[in-house]
Amino acid sequence: MNYFDNPNYSVIVVGAGRGIGRAAAVELAAQGVAVACFDSDAETARQVAEEIGSAGGRSVRAHLDVTEPGTLAPAVEKAMTAFGRVDALVNCAGITGRTNVPAHDVDPEDFDLVYRVNLRGALLLSQIVLPHMLKQRYGRILHVASIAGKEGNAGMTAYSATKAGLIGMVKSMAKDYVEQGITINALAPAVIRTPMVDALPQATVDYMTAKIPMRRCGELQEAAQMIAWIVSPACSFTTGFTFDLSGGRATY
What we know:
Elements: E1 10-14, H1 19-30, E2 34-39, H2 42-54, E3 59-63, H3 72-83, E4 88-91, H4 108-136, E5 139-144, H5 148-151, H6 157-176, E6 182-189, H7 195-198, H8 202-209, H9 220-230, E7 242-245
Parallel strand pairs: 1-2, 1-4, 2-3, 4-5, 5-6, 6-7
Helix pairs in contact: 1-9, 4-6
C-alpha cells in the first residue's frame, strides 16, 4: 500500500546501510519517496543509495555518525540541497553494547557509548531537522526504540536504559511541537532478524524470542511497512506514541 501522494516528499533515514534502516529506505523509495541514505558506514550508505537509484528511485547518501556532531549538519544540508525540503526523519541508529552482563559488572565506558548512540544521538538528530520542519510547519520524526525500553532485558542494562530514555524523550518532545504540524513517535520492535541481532549471543536471542507470543522473529519488511505509514501524511493524529512491533509481547 502506498501512503504517499506527494511526488516531492523526502525522508532522511539514519542507519540506512543495514537492517531495519536499509529495509525502510528501500520501501520508502519503492513508494516514490526521495530518500537520503545516511550511515556511519559510508560504503553501505552508497550501496543502498545506488540500489535505490538503479530501481528508478531518488536518493542521496552521506556519512553520518551520531557520535560525531560535526557530521550531522553537512549531511542534512546535502538532503536539503538535493530535495529542497525534509519531510521526515527515520532514526535507526542504535547499538546494544556488551550483553549478558549483570548490572554490577557493566563497564561505565560501554554504557556511555551506548548512551551516546541510542539517546544523545537521537536528540542531536532531532535538533538538526526540527528547524527545517518548523519553517514548513510539517514534519514526521520516528526514532526506533526497542521492546527492551518497555520491559527491560536481562543482561542488557545499557541498551534497555537508553531505549527507555528514548521512549521518554519522544513523549516529551512530541508535546513541544504538537501544534506545529510535526509528529514525533517511536517504534518498539522485539527481535527482528538484522545484522545487529545476528551479532548477539544465541542465548540472548533465544531469551528474547521465547518471550514473543507469536514464537518468531519479526521480518524486516514488516518493520519497513509500518515505518512508511508512521512517517507518511496518513499518520496524522498520533504523536508521542510508541508503536508496538513485538508479536504480542508488549501491548501497552
